[in-house]
Amino acid sequence: MNASRIALVTGANQGLGRALVEGLAARLDPDSLVLLTGRDRRRVADAAREVAGLPGTRARVEGRVLDVTDTDAIARLAEELRAEHGGVDIVISNAVARLLPEESQAARADEFIDVSNTATHAVLRRFGPVLRPGGRLLVVASSLGTLGRLDPRLHHLFDGASLDQVESAVESWREAVRTGTAAAAGWPRWLNVPSKVAQVAAVRAVAAERRARDLATGTLIAAVCPGMVDTATSRPWFSDFSQAQPPSEAASAVLDVVFAEHVDPGLYGELIRFGQALDWHGGTPLVEQDRLLTP
Ligand SMILES: NC(=O)c1ccc[n+]([C@@H]2O[C@H](COP(=O)([O-])OP(=O)(O)OC[C@H]3O[C@@H](n4cnc5c(N)ncnc54)[C@H](OP(=O)(O)O)[C@@H]3O)[C@@H](O)[C@H]2O)c1
Prior knowledge:
9 helices; Rossmann fold; globular; binds NADP nicotinamide-adenine-dinucleotide phosphate; eight-stranded mixed beta sheet
C-alpha cells in the first residue's frame, strides 16, 4: 500500500462506519486522507469535524456527501479519486438503511435493497477498477451472509454466481417482496438476511475474477462481519445484547484486516469475521427474527 493513502467509508456519519473512520484516521499517516461519506450534508460535516478534532486523529479527515442510492454519484466519486489521486487505497462499503421489526418489510424493501445491494454492486463495479495495487475493498456484511441462512431452494441463485447473476437474483427477490410471493418462494422475511447473502455473493463474484492479479499485488477484496455491534440499527432485533461490542471495538477488528501486512489467500474473497473466513455454505436459517415480523 502507498505511504500516503486515500480511504473512503460509506454510511460513516454514525455507528460502525464512523468508528471505522476514527480508526482509519488514527492508524493512517498524517499525509493520508480519509473521506467520511454519508447522505446528509449536515450530519456528514458534523461527524467529519468531530473526528478531525479527536486527540488520536493523525490523517486528514474530510466529509463528502454520498447517498449510495445514487449510483451515478458513486461512479463520479470513483472517477474523481482516479483523476485527482490516481485511485484509492481503502474502500469500505458499510451503509445500511435502518429497519425496525414493527415496520412492514415490503414497504421498506426498495430503500433497503438499494442501500445495501444496488449500492454494493456499484461500489464493486466503480471502485474495483480504481483500487490501487495493495489496496483493500471491503464490504461490511454479517454472519447472516452465508448461504446456509437461506432456504436450500434459493442457494443456486447465489452459489458460484457472477455479479450480473447476483444482481438478477436480488431483483427477483425484490419483485417477490413487492408481489407478496417472497415467503412462499422461501425468502426469509427479515430483509437483512437475503441482503447480506447477496452482498457476500457479489464480493465472491468480483473476487473470483481478480483473484490472481490481486494476490500478486497484495490487494484484498473481501466481505467482513463485524460481529454484533451496539448501534441503534441492531438493538431492536436481538433479545440478548450482552455480547454486543461498542462500535470502536468492532471497527478495530475490521481494521486489523485492512492493515494486515500481507494478504492471506485463504481470506481473499471470503466473509471474514475476527480474522477468520466463515464457511460460505455454513449457517442455518434464523427463526427468532422472522417470528418478530408480521407476514
Ligand atoms: N450493528 C450490528 O450489530 C451489525 C452486525 C453485523 C453487520 N452490521 C453491518 O454494519 C454496517 C453498519 O451498521 P450500523 O449498525 O453501524 O448501522 P447505523 O448505525 O444505522 O449506520 C448506518 C449508516 O448508513 C447510513 N446510510 C443510510 N442510508 C444511506 C444512504 N442512502 N447513503 C449513504 N449512507 C446511508 C446512515 O446514515 P444516516 O445517519 O443519514 O441515517 C448511517 O450513517 C451495516 O452494513 C450493517 O449491516 C452491523
